[in-house]
Amino acid sequence: MSNIESSGVAAQQAIFDKLGISTQKSAEERASGDKLGQDDFLQLMTAQLQNQDPFAPMENGDFIAQMAQFSTVSGIEEINQNLQSLSGEMKKTRIATAATLLGQSVLVPGSMARPDDNGEIHGVFELPQAASASRVTFTDASSGELLHSEDLGPQGTGLVGFSWTDIPTELRDGNRKIKVDVSANTGKGMETMGPSIYARVLSASSFGDPSDAATLDVEDYGTIDASTISRIR
């Protein structure tokens, strides 16, 4: 019996050799023994064909179905590997793109502003409906002193831009924070509107999973998801 078994094993090994199937696994492959690779599948398939009942052999359809199932699984694994590689490349691209924003100004919701490199402050606010009057005021964020006020007049529905371009020289120090308040009359008297301010990007970074978006460190506003930025100056 042992001679027959040895002969069978030898014949099976000869088939594996002809098919280029490796029966020797590395330590790393053995450690991940919960996964079947292509060689494992072909070994099982060959053993199944060798040991099938000659009077009731495997149907062609069953054989093809097994091959198709393995091909599908193998294809999915390859797609996953490609997606992981693509995700890593996308992460690098996001970082490179975010890095180009260093020193630029991006639009973020908030009321804190500082004069930019040109000594100006720019921002927008959104009106849910037309306003008969609108106003923007700039005050010292520390003392509350009124620095500048500007009537923007009637405005239509949607985004309304505003700016303070003739900021006095003594106020152009970037270390001085200025608070921006916007109000508008949409039929119920002057009401406060939430502005968005163009603020300077200080740095860009990305952490964790490759699918995580790059983040921007924006002056006075901290860390912001780069994918949420819609406007740049």
In short:
Strands 1, 3, 6, 9, 10 and 11 form a six-stranded antiparallel beta sheet that branches. Strands 2, 4, 5, 7 and 8 form a five-stranded antiparallel beta sheet that branches. With 233 residues, this protein is an alpha+beta fold.
Please, could you describe this protein's structure?
With 233 residues, the chain is of the alpha+beta class. The protein folds into two domains: 2-99, no CATH class; 105-228, Sandwich (Immunoglobulin-like). It has helices spanning 2-19, 27-31, 38-50, 60-99; strands at 105-109, 112-113, 121-127, 133-140, 146-151, 158-164, 178-185, 190-193, 195-205, 215-218, 222-225. The strands form two sheets. Strands 1, 3, 6, 9, 10 and 11 form a six-stranded antiparallel beta sheet that branches. Strands 2, 4, 5, 7 and 8 form a five-stranded antiparallel beta sheet that branches. β10 and β11 form a beta hairpin. The protein is elongated. The model has no long low-confidence stretch (mean pLDDT 77). Residues 119-182 form the FlgD/Vpr Ig-like domain. Pfam families: FlgD, FlgD_ig. It comes from Nereida ignava. Belongs to the FlgD family. This is Basal-body rod modification protein FlgD.
